[in-house]
Amino acid sequence: MARNYAALLYDYLEEWKELKEAEVGRLCIALMEYSRDGKPIKLSGNERFYAARVMMQEDRFKESYELIVEQRRKAGKASADKRMSTDVNESQRGATEVNETNNKEIETEIETKINIPVPIGTGRTRFAPPSVEEVAEYCRERGNAVDPAQFVDFYASKGWKVGREPMKDWKAAVRTWEQRDKKPAGKPGYRAQPHNGTLGEYERAAVERLMQDG
Description:
The protein is mostly helical and 214 residues long.
């Protein structure tokens, strides 16, 4: 930014006191023109004896001013670069935090969906079909002769329903099969003779009552 003024020292008041007002006026005008255009001062009166001093001092002021302007320009650029770098870092940090938060929410949602058993039917409690191993373990605990694989295959083919109602308690169904089997139990966890998978009318009604009570 160019300077739009010329510097007049207080010292000039003492130095120019012997000059007439017209001479001081011409010297001041010549000083301003030199500061603006850089052309040497040409004077013919007594003020000409002060021209060299005035031009030298003006050159020093102008050089000092330009140095200050350059330093401020560099400082301003460095400050702007620092702010820009800070803004970019904050933006990247914010994006990273958002991504991490979204990833955690997605992971939590996935874990929740994985751990929730799939409900069968629309009852008040959730029902998860048992595996063959779970049925076998329960049969071993009770020491009955129910065939776990046959039990699971039978109800899986029916959509885990008892009659038309969704099953609520598979252990109750195991106990029903256990009561239905009148023959002595063989090796724990297995039926002495395979069941043909068909329920009689009385047995079906009993199973449905047990499921509804559960």
